[in-house]
């Protein structure tokens, strides 16, 4: 049986607003036969029942995508499409219809509008409300709201939210571009008087970002909107944001991403977005802005799930009323919803942290200047349910102040709910094994991803930072692409990277650029500009991202070509940034220039592969030569005549081996030296952000999976499982964020939700369970199954809904024999590297294999 699921248009489900008139339409197959797809046909119509406007024709191909090449679709018109697929066994399936709509290029008479009051760099302003009434002469039959904001916006029509998107329109460098989306809002409109409204928030645009004052990009939030309505009488109406709108402040006294939201329910505006309301509102202010408005290429942020406290709250006795601490049992990112009953005018203070201190109080120091505090002032008219709108926190523990419950009468468990928010990404993979601590590690990795993929990939979600740190993202992207479908998410962020590129080609340490942390990000950070899109292209088989950014990627390598000295990067006096080194390594400093040169080699190698993939043979040859020159230089500078490295840190060996910088004779020596260095530390790693992601790979790929497993199963720090043994539910920034002997690490930098070290997830999927892409493969057509047994595990398995279809790999050890069950999707084939050393070629379908151990 063949079934088609998930129809995507440019990585999005049913988008309204696209940057191209010829979008790439793609589909995913479920197949329980092993017959590969052999033909497809995509048909596009102007309505579910309407005439056909384009037909790809029956195309002999195993591809899962095609670029639309039909007539131009006009804004507001919906192109409906279906795909039919035939497999080699004569089965065929037709998809359910899906659709897309182009956006608008022309924002007509709409203007940027907002409230004139902006607060200052250190004083916040309330969140403005905006509204306008308009009349529709007959029944609306089609209506689209195109909307964006500098800041954040929650758009309304006739008192109802026009979308469930959150933190919209996300974070871009607002000096360059801001994203918009279109929404189908016909159901929200009616004949006669209607009202359009919006609530604006500061967001990344003018609230606090990182550790700086407010107003990094602009002074106050602004709305831009176009509502286009077709009516039953054949006429149409456009409602633009302009000076005819009115504005007022309401209950949101302040809302800041770092500091929290203050809401006075007594100031609620009632039915502010319905006809006849809005008395006393003042005209909106119009603003001139030059920012480019572009369709959002990635998924929207949504409420994804809710978490209830694991038990009744614990009191912290205090006069005049107790504090109550709720434990959600999971470190999470999002909002706090409260349900309270209190006197009018009573203010509830809601604070949160990731961890508690030794006395059981909130441990707030690691938040640095982020107050992460919400205030809710009650109306006092019965049960009140509230959650913030424009702020998010990273937390497990929630402290409520203001309730007058006595110690023996705690507030109900459902006084607090954790509302999890992140960019909407479908779960595509899972890993599970016989060790509960490793399973918890996998869960922590996934929660690190949930917590830090809120429109941009951030280092951490809680303290006054939350930046798109390039290094962190590049080490984690491969793991992320196992756990969830991140194609759209990284397509968007790759654009952010390009936007932040400097004139000389350099890529900064954070993106979007905040204007402060600019310049060159240095080795292992700036390289995200190659690593991320290359990873996305490999995993999703989509070359468009590479094509789109190819010239800018070349410019990035060009900058390194201009600044090296004898192919060494980050030498003393280097004109760029020497780098952050092997950030947060443990008593093991790897020289900057060694790291720099290794990453320069990696860049050249990636660029050669990218050029090859895109068919730019000359470029590819040039980059291959560059790689050879760098590797040669690396050997001259960093390999001793005896064949050891001049720097004997684990990271030095790991980078040299991982990036293929050593000659054949040196490789075994480097592996031995690496193992020796690990054993010298009692089977502990000393690697930081740059060495850790490759450490286990290097060991298992050079015949020492045993050592990799010893590191994986290590329970004393530094190790992956140490935090797990301490009850961690997310990945910590530091191996020793908290230890029995020393307590908490330096509060100046001690996040408990930092996904970087979660990059071990890639190894769990690809070297423990064994699912990986073969070298040179795009989109899981050529698989490699490389299961490794060790660590006392008796079974391990993983699944992946790849673009080629479902892949599974699971093993168990029984009576000294290794049993391996794998599923290869219909269009793919693979090689299985059994632990016995045997290599088998497999085709589509389920295979049960076994060997002696
Ligand atoms: C820290 C960030 C991030 C890291 C940089 C170098 O402040 O949290 O994880 O990439 O520094």
What features would you describe in this structure?
With 853 residues, the chain is an alpha+beta fold. Helix content is 21%, strand content 31%. Strands 20, 21, 25, 26, 27, 28, 29, 30, 31 and 32 form a 10-stranded mixed beta sheet that branches. The radius of gyration is 28 Å and the shape is globular. It starts with a strand and ends with a strand. The mean pLDDT is 96. Bound molecules: alpha-L-rhamnopyranose (RAM). Alpha-L-rhamnopyranose is lined by residues 459-460, 465, 469, 471-472, 580, 583, 754.
How confident is the prediction overall: mean pLDDT? 96
Bound molecules: alpha-L-rhamnopyranose
Task: Give the overall form.
Answer: globular
Any low-confidence stretches, pLDDT <50, length ≥5? none
The quaternary organization reads as single chain
Main sheet overview: 10 strands, mixed
| Strand-residue proportion | 25-35%
> What is the CA-atom radius of gyration, in angstroms?
28 Å
Instruction: Tell me the number of helical segments per DSSP (H or I, 4 or more residues long).
Output: 14
- Total beta-strand segments: 45
Please estimate the helix content: 10-25%
Distance between the termini: 36 Å
Write the layout of secondary structure elements.
Layout: E1 2-9, E2 24-31, E3 37-45, E4 52-55, E5 59-60, E6 65-67, E7 79-87, E8 92-94, E9 98-100, E10 112-114, E11 128-136, E12 140-150, E13 152-157, E14 160-161, E15 177-184, E16 192-201, H1 203-206, E17 222-231, E18 236-240, E19 246-249, E20 252-256, E21 260-264, E22 282-283, E23 285-287, E24 292-295, E25 301-307, E26 314-316, E27 323-341, E28 347-353, E29 373-377, E30 383-387, E31 393-401, E32 416-423, E33 429-433, H2 436-452, E34 453-454, E35 456-457, H3 470-483, H4 487-499, H5 528-540, H6 544-563, H7 592-613, H8 617-638, H9 650-658, H10 666-680, H11 692-701, H12 705-713, H13 721-725, E36 738-739, E37 743-744, H14 760-769, E38 771-773, E39 782-785, E40 795-802, E41 805-814, E42 817-824, E43 829-833, E44 839-842, E45 845-852
Parallel strand pairs: 15-24, 21-29, 39-43
Antiparallel strand pairs: 1-2, 2-6, 3-4, 3-5, 3-7, 7-8, 7-9, 10-17, 10-23, 11-16, 11-19, 12-15, 12-17, 13-14, 13-16, 17-18, 19-22, 20-21, 25-32, 26-27, 27-30, 27-31, 27-32, 28-29, 28-31, 33-40, 34-35, 36-37, 38-39, 40-41, 41-42, 42-45, 43-44
Helix pairs in contact: 3-5, 3-14, 4-5, 4-6, 5-6, 6-7, 7-8, 9-10, 9-11, 11-12, 11-14
The structure holds alpha-L-rhamnopyranose.
Alpha-L-rhamnopyranose binds next to α3.
């Amino acid at each position: 049986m063949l079934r088609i699921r998930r129809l995507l248009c440019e990585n999005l489900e049913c988008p309204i607003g696209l940057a191209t008139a010829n979008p790439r339409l793609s589909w995913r197959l479920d197949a329980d036969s092993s017959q590969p797809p052999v033909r497809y046909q995509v048909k596009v119509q102007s309505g579910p029942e309407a005439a056909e406007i384009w037909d790809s024709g029956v195309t002999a191909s195993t591809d899962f995508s095609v670029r639309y090449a039909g007539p131009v679709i006009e804004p507001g018109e919906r192109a409906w499409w279906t795909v039919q697929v035939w497999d080699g066994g004569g089965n065929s399936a037709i998809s359910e219809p899906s659709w897309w709509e182009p956006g608008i290029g022309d924002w007509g008479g709409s203007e940027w509008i907002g409230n004139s009051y902006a607060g200052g760099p250190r004083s916040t302003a309330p969140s403005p409300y905006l509204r306008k009434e308009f009349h529709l002469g007959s029944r609306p039959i089609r209506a689209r709201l195109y909307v964006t904001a500098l800041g954040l916006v929650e758009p309304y029509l006739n008192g109802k939210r026009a979308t469930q998107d959150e933190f919209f329109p996300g974070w871009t460098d607002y000096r360059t571009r801001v994203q918009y989306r279109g929404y189908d809002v016909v159901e929200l409109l009616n004949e006669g008087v209607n009202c359009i409204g919006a609530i604006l928030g500061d967001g990344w645009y003018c609230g606090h970002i990182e550790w700086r004052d407010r107003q990094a990009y602009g002074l106050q939030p602004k709305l831009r909107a176009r509502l286009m309505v077709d009516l039953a009488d054949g006429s149409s109406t456009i409602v633009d944001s302009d000076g005819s709108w009115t504005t007022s402040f309401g209950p949101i006294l302040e809302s800041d991403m770092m500091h929290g939201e203050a809401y006075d329910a007594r100031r609620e505006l009632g039915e502010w977005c319905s006809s006849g309301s809005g008395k006393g509102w003042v005209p909106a202010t119009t603003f001139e802005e030059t920012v480019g408005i572009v369709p959002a290429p990635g998924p929207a942020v949504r409420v994804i799930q809710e978490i209830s406290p694991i038990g009744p709250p614990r009191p912290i006795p205090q006069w005049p009323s107790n504090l109550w601490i709720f434990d959600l049992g999971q470190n999470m990112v999002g909002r706090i919803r409260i349900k309270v009953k209190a006197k009018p005018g009573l203010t509830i203070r809601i604070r949160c942290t990731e961890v508690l201190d030794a006395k059981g109080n909130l441990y707030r120091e690691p938040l640095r200047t982020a107050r992460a505090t919400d205030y809710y002032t009650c109306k006092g008219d019965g049960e009140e349910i509230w959650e913030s709108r424009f702020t998010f926190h990273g937390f497990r523990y929630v402290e409520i102040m203001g309730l007058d419950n006595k110690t023996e009468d705690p507030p109900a468990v459902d006084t607090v709910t954790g509302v999890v928010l992140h960019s909407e990404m479908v779960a595509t993979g899972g890993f599970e094994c016989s060790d509960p601590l490793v399973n918890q590690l996998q869960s922590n990795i996934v929660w690190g991803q949930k917590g830090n993929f809120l429109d941009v990939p951030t280092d951490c979600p809680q303290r006054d930072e939350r930046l798109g740190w390039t290094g962190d993202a590049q080490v984690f992207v491969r793991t992320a692409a196992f756990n969830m479908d991140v194609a759209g998410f990284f397509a968007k962020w790759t654009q952010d990277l390009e936007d932040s590129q400097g004139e000389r080609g350099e890529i900064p340490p954070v993106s979007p650029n905040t204007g402060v942390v600019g310049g060159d990000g240095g080795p292992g950070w700036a390289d995200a500009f190659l690593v991320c899109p290359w990873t996305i292209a490999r995993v999703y088989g989509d070359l468009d991202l590479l094509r789109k950014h190819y010239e800018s990627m070349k410019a990035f390598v060009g900058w390194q070509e201009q600044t090296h000295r004898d192919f060494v990067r980050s030498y003393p006096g280097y004109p760029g940034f020497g780098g952050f080194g092997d950030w947060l390594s443990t008593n093991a400093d790897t020289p900057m220039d060694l790291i720099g040169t290794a990453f320069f080699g990696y860049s050249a190698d990636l660029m050669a592969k990218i050029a090859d993939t895109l068919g730019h043979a000359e470029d590819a040859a040039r980059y291959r030569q560059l790689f050879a020159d760098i590797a040669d230089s690396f050997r001259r500078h960093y390999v001793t005549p005896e064949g050891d490295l001049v720097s004997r840190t684990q990271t030095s060996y790991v980078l040299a081996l991982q990036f293929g910088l050593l000659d054949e004779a040196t490789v075994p020596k480097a592996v031995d030296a690496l193992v020796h260095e690990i054993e010298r530390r009692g089977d502990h790693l000393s690697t930081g952000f740059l060495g850790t992601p490759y450490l286990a790979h290097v060991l298992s790929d050079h015949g020492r999976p045993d050592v990799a497993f010893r590191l994986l199963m290590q329970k004393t720090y530094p190790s992956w499982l140490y935090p797990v043994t301490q009850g961690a539910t997310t990945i910590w920034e530091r191996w020793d964020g908290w230890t029995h002997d020393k307590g908490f690490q330096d509060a100046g930098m001690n996040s408990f939700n930092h996904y970087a070290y979660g990059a071990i997830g890639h190894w769990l999927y690809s070297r423990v369970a064994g699912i990986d892409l073969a070298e040179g493969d795009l989109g899981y057509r050529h698989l490699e199954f490389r299961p490794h047994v060790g660590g006392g595990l008796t079974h391990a398995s993983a699944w992946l809904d790849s673009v080629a279809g479902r892949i599974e790999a699971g093993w168990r050890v029984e009576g000294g024999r290794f049993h391996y069950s794998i599923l290869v999707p219909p269009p793919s084939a693979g090689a299985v590297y059994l632990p016995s050393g045997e290599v088998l070629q497999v085709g589509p379908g389920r295979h049960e294999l076994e060997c002696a151990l």
